[in-house]
# Entry
Amino acid sequence: MTFPHTLRIAETAAEAGEMAAAMLAEAIAARPSIVLGLATGGTMRGVYASLLARQTRGEVDLTQICAFNLDDYLGLGIEDEQSYATEMRRVLFAPAGIDPRRCHIPNGRAADPAKEGDRYEAAIRDAGGIDLQLLGLGVNGHIGFNEPGSLPQSRTRVVDLAPQTIVHNRKHFPPGADVPTRAISMGIATILEARRILVLATGAVKADAVSAMLERPPSTDCPASFLSRHGQVSVVLDRAAAARIGPVRAP
Ligand code: GLP
# Structure
């Protein structure tokens, strides 16, 4: 088994986003009712903008997809400006015209957060499982909000955010606002059950995490390194994110 199954390196972050969008569009065209696992973060904005542009040009129909997002902040929900639920509605679901009943995301405002993980896992199972999971990479190698220390058998649950993650994500909150310190995230085992995985990472800030993911043995120090246990992973990088991987992988 090779890991990753495919590795593509674009010159720029914008080109990498286009590459990832093209791969998603191809998968959607092959199966319009595909179950997609989706991610938030600055890296994904270009991907979603490209998918919307492709839909406007008549190249892809996003309206029949079923989406399961990786995570949301604990305490924030669709009513909150900074929740991932609101972000996804703004950058993809609403402009694409996807019925909200097909758009799933862990409910950060669930009455009983401890039970939300089980509810979410059951919803994924009821949908037939995730066909293709899109993943970004945290600066510390997290996937979803599975921070270093997360176990490969972890499932959707409440997690504590790493101090580095809180600092990195502060830019998405108004100055002076409290950044949540906990989240509900799909687990690593949940992610590994997806039939295919597409990782997108761009920028020099991700270069160390990319190197740990691709070149170090699987370890809880870098949760993304557990992706090597999956047989169908595609990785798309820009030059800056690929700067610390070896010449054999990144010619
Ligand atoms: C958050 C999300 C991750 C995402 C990461 C990267 O932490 N939970 O799923 O990969 O952001 O964010 P960015 O793309 O803004 O660097």
